[in-house]
Amino acid sequence: MLLCGAVMSGIAAQPPAKKQLVAHRGASAYAPEHTLEAYTLAIEQGADFVEQDLAVTKDGMLVCIHDLTLDRTTNVEDVFPTRFVEDKTAASPTRSWLVGDFTLAEIKQLDAGAWFNPKFAGARIPTFQEAIDAVGSRAGLYPELKDPAFYRERGVSPEKLLAGILEKNGLLKQAGSPRVIIQSFDETTVKLLATALPGVPRVWLVDPAAAGRIDSEEKVKQLATWATGLGPNKMIVAARPEIVTWAHAAGLTVTPWTFRSSNTGTFPSVRDEMAKYLYEYGVDAVFTDNPDQFPRK
Ligand code: G3P
Ligand code: CA
């Protein structure tokens, strides 16, 4: 049964034979993030994997959206003006429209494209199933469970939902190159998935606040008992490039985030920035908003 069993077996994590391009929220520099338009463009631009951030609707469906709330990327405030929750503890009370407070049918009424550019008006939030169908065999999937602790507190198991849909789609048996790589910032989630889906690679995302978890070879080695890869903020790698060597020695892949033309720091271009990480620091893959700028060799 999914998510049962005590064995937290790992899979042999081999660094990929070639550097891999993960389209971050799709080709999100050019099309509204997490729409089928962004996913399709990412594939046209050569993505090896297309990323889906996943949230759970009120009726238990996995949908592709980065935020816990609908406000930033849809017109929910116009369509459902009274369906907000208010945080009255903040200095200035804030209103939020939580994904988990809306059914899929309601969410499908929302425009998820016009905020980005009027030419994308009418784009919808896809279900994860729709994303799987749209990507098909043209690229891999790279789902991230967002805010799993929030959903667990509501009595929902996003891990079970993810495991169920991957099983239903025949995506658990992965011969050769993986078709699915799972990711989460939530350690509990990665450990649950290690038990439930031991054959599916799983990346633990590391934000700057957690950089201390990977600041020694011994600590990195320990993570390899439940993760198959690390997904560090790119600044963590820049500050301590030896993390890549430590990870590879432990059998872990390294996939930093996020490379975007709108934020290249001191690099002249996002292509130059990605090249530094891939070919000097030696990371295995990158998350980028700009798949067309990926520097293949
Ligand atoms: O999942 C890797 C990267 O996407 C993490 O950042 O906030 O864009 O999901 P975020
Ligand atoms: Ca993500």
Would you write up a description of this structure?
There is one protein chain. This protein has one domain (20-69, 124-293): Phosphatidylinositol (PI) phosphodiesterase (TIM Barrel). It is α/β, with parallel strands linked by helices. Helix 1 (36-44) packs parallel to helix 4 (128-135). The chain has helices spanning 36-44, 76-79, 104-107, 128-135, 148-153, 158-168, 187-196, 217-223, 234-239, 242-249, 270-281; strands at 20-23, 49-56, 62-64, 85-87, 94-96, 140-145, 182-184, 202-206, 229-232, 253-254, 285-288. The strands form three sheets. Strands 1, 2, 3, 6 and 11 form a five-stranded mixed β-sheet that branches. It binds SN-glycerol-3-phosphate and calcium ion (CA). SN-glycerol-3-phosphate binds next to loops.
**Span between termini:** 43 Å
Structural Rg: 19 Å
- Kindly report the name of the CATH homologous superfamily: Phosphatidylinositol (PI) phosphodiesterase
Beta-strand percentage? 15-25%
CATH topology term = TIM Barrel
| Low-pLDDT regions | 1-12
What would you call the shape?
Answer: globular
Question: What's the structural blueprint in terms of helices and strands?
Answer:
Elements lengths: L19 E4 L12 H9 L4 E8 L5 E3 L11 H4 L5 E3 L6 E3 L7 H4 L20 H8 L4 E6 L2 H6 L4 H11 L13 E3 L2 H10 L5 E5 L10 H7 L5 E4 L1 H6 L2 H8 L3 E2 L15 H12 L3 E4 L9
Parallel strand pairs: 1-2, 1-11, 2-6, 7-8, 8-9, 9-10
Antiparallel strand pairs: 2-3, 4-5
Helix pairs in contact: 1-4, 8-10
